[in-house]
Sequence to fold (455 residues):
Amino acid sequence: MKTIALHNLGCKVNSYEVDIMQQLLQESGYEIVQFNQKADIYVINTCSVTNMADRKSRQMLHKARKLNPEAIVVAVGCFVQADAREASRDEAIDLLIGNNRKKDIVEILEQYMETGNADLYLQEEEEVRTYLRKTLGNTTVVDVKKADFEDAKMEHTAEHTRAYIKIQDGCNRFCSYCIIPYTRGGVRSRRPELVLDEIRGLVSAGYKEFVLTGIHISSYGLDFEQKNPALSLSSLLKEINALPGVERIRIGSFEPMILQEDFVKELSRLDKLCPHFHISLQSGCDATLKRMNRRYDTGEYLSRVKLLREYFPGCAITTDVIVGFPGETEEEFAETVAFLREVSFFEMHIFKYSRRKGTRADVMEHQIPEEIKQKRSNVLLELEQEMSASYRASFMGKALSVLLEEKKTIGGTEYWIGHSREYVKVACNGKECGENQILTLVPEAFLEEDVLLGK
Fold:
C-alpha cells in the first residue's frame, strides 16, 4: 500500500477539494499520512491568488521533495493553471494537474506510475466539447462546462462539526487585481440535487452546520437556464433549510449587489440561516473601487449593509479589505478608514496589496511602497480589533446558541469552545459541554481577547 500526504493552500474551495481528493485516494487503497512524514507521494493543492501565494506553493513543493527525494511530487490547482509552462520547469515537481482534473487524481497517478507519462493534465477532452483559451501574459485559462467534483460526494471533512459544501466554481468578474478568472475559468454552478444529496449524507455522518462555499457564490445559477443567481441561490437555501438534521446554514461570501430587498427578505424567512454575512468590500474609497473594477460604490455597499441589519438585527457583518492598491493616496486611505468605521464590521480580513503578474493592476502606475502598505495595514488591524471587541462585548448577558467544536486549555483550565450563530467564539466547561453539542450559553466575561466565557 502506497502512502500519500496532502497539503492545502488557499481558500475554502481548495479545502473542500483537497478533502474530496483525500477521500478518493483512501477509497482507492492509499494510506494517508501527515505531510511532515516520509511518504511515497506528496500532493500539494496550490494557491495563486498573489505572488506570495505562488511563493508559498513553490516552498511546499520543494519541502515535499526534501522530505523524500524519491517520492512522486504532485502540484495541483491554481499555481499550475496560472503558469503551467513555468511550473513544468521546476525539477521538484513530477506531475502537474490543473483545477478541472483534480477529480481524476487517482487515474492520473496510476497512469503516471505505470507509464511515467507526465503530460500536463489541464484539459478534459472527452467531457468538454469546446475550450476557450484566453491568454494574458503567460497565463492560460480553460473554460470548462461542468463544475469540478460535481459528481463526487463528500462523506467526511477535516472538521468534525462543520462541513463546507462547494456549490459553485469560477468567476466572470475580472477585478483588476485578481488572477482567479484565469485559473478557475468562468462560472459553473453545481446542480441543486447534487448539493442536497451531499448534505443528506453529511447529516447522516453527524454534521450539523453547513457552509456554502464557492469562488463567486453570488453568481450561483448564472449558467442555469433562468440565469438568475438571486433566485437560484434563494431556492437552494430554502431546500437546504428544509432538510431534516440540518441545524445551521452559513454563506461563505456575498457580493453586495445580490443583496436586493426581495432576496434579503427571502433569507430572513430561513430559520436555520445564521445571521453572519461576509460581504466583500476591498476598499472604502469609490475612486479605488473603480480602479479595482469592483462595479459598486460605497453608497450601494452601505445600503446593502443597512438592509441586512433591518432584516437581521444584530447580525455579524465581516469583510475583506486591500490596503496599498496602486494609486491609493493618503486621502483615499483616510476615506477607507472613515467608511469602515461607519459600517462598523465585526471582523475584517486585511490584505496588503500584492502584485500578481498577469493582472491589470500589476502594470498600473503609482505602485505603493511596502513600508506604506505595512503602515496602513497596521492602522486597519488596530481598527479591526477595536470594532471586533465592541461587537463581542454587545453579547454580554445575552443568551447565545453555541455549537461546540474543540477543546482548549486556557489558564490551566480545559474548555470546550465553539461559535454562536453570529460566529462569536464562546467557551464553557460544564459537564454538559462536549463536541458537536449545541448549547444555550450566556457570556459573562472575556476569557481571551476573541473568546467569551459562557455559563
